[in-house]
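Run log, item B.
One chain of 158 residues. Sequence copied directly from the ordering sheet:
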Amino acid sequence: MQKVPMTVQGEQALREELEFLKKDSRPKVIKEIAIAREHGDLKENAEYHAAREQQGFIEGRIQDIEGKLSNVQVIDVTKLPKSGKVLFGTTVSLIDVESDEEKTYQIVGEDEADVSNGKISSGSPIARALLGKEEGDVVSITVPNGIIEYEIDGVQYI
């Protein structure tokens, strides 16, 4: 099975979610099912069915996280040589060549991506165009409404 790249912070967040699901959510939903069972007829018991559905979601998420963690390749960008090259985990400052607008993105794993917080997946078109490039390079990225050119203003290994 292929290793899944993830930042140190991404792995930590997944481990915390897994612990929360196992130690808080799972016992809570088991209690809810037991209470709902005490109400009698299970065929028409909405609380019982809702709790069972929630239990299925929790168990599925636990399996999903455990699967991801078993195949994770944690990349600690702070330990990489600071070459000015865009790599997985680096934070890249870009300047739109046409508008001079500045943008900053951290290139992260698929599960960590959150564009509203400046974290883009390494598989996204922007990240794929940036990976391997260096400070000062101009990168052309094809987007739905055309081509955008960005100059790589800085690369941080934080």
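Observations after the first pass:
- The helical segments are 8-37, 46-70, 125-130.
- The chain has a mean pLDDT of 92.
Flagged for discussion on Thursday.
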